[in-house]
Automatic annotation (TrEMBL):
PANTHER family: ALPHA_BETA-TUBULIN-N-ACETYLTRANSFERASE 9 (PTHR13256:SF16), N-ACETYLTRANSFERASE 9 (PTHR13256). Residues 48-193 form the N-acetyltransferase domain. Its EC number is 2.3.1.308. Pfam families: Acetyltransf_3 (PF13302). Keywords: Acyltransferase, Transferase. It is an enzyme of class 2 (transferase). The keyword Transferase applies. Belongs to the acetyltransferase family. GNAT subfamily. InterPro entries: Acyl_CoA_acyltransferase, GNAT_dom, NAT9-like. It comes from the Eukaryota. N-acetyltransferase that mediates the acetylation of the N-terminal residues of alpha- and beta-tubulin. This is Alpha/beta-tubulin-N-acetyltransferase 9. GO terms for molecular function: tubulin N-terminal-methionine acetyltransferase activity.
Amino acid sequence: ASSGSQRAPEGAIPSLGHAGDIIGVSHLSLSAEAMKINQNTVLQGQKVTLVPYTSAHVPRYHEWMQSEELQRLTASEPLSLEQEYEMQRSWRDDADKCTFIVLDTERWSGQACADEDCMVGDVNLFLTDTEDPTLGEIEIMIAEPSYRGRGFGKEATLMMMSYGKRNLGITKFEAKIGQENEASICMFKKLHFNEVAVNSIFQEVTLRLDVSDQERRWLLEQTNHVKEKSYVELKLPAEVLET
């Protein structure tokens, strides 16, 4: 679900982020197994809960992307609602993407809110190198301005990295960030990423983290509070499950 990578043609100028929470990515298409691995996965953390991107999330997502600020940050054009539904279907079925919608854990679990009332952004992994399935490009978008700069993007990114390592076999992560977006660059450096390249044409910085044994243990420590649950079971009423 998100940002320039969703909409912009390959090679488009990546987005500039805000408060470390919005990063745009360009990516390549792969012909591999469809990435439906997370279609029934919920990852519940302290601040954020990650759920699969479904058609129920599209209207709120579509609302976000009417924002001129988000269009600018994600280098994207506004889509019609029907185009947004088509995009969601392609995201569900595409072989080279894994995406979660980011929810506010406190609102979602505490008040039993519908997903769409608790949505704050999304987080994505792209398999960008046909020669190297262990390389994943990561992107985070915290679309709700009131949630930026509060650690929601950081926790969502760590949770996605841990999921990618455990479930997708990713051992190398990259993030491509606009050069002016110092907050995002700073956030990824705090997550042990190192700057490896600068593209002056697209005015973007590439940061990278190779997951050594030491980094794997650190990632595990950072995310050992995360609970994995079944999305279907959480969405069904209890009495249905009992019958």
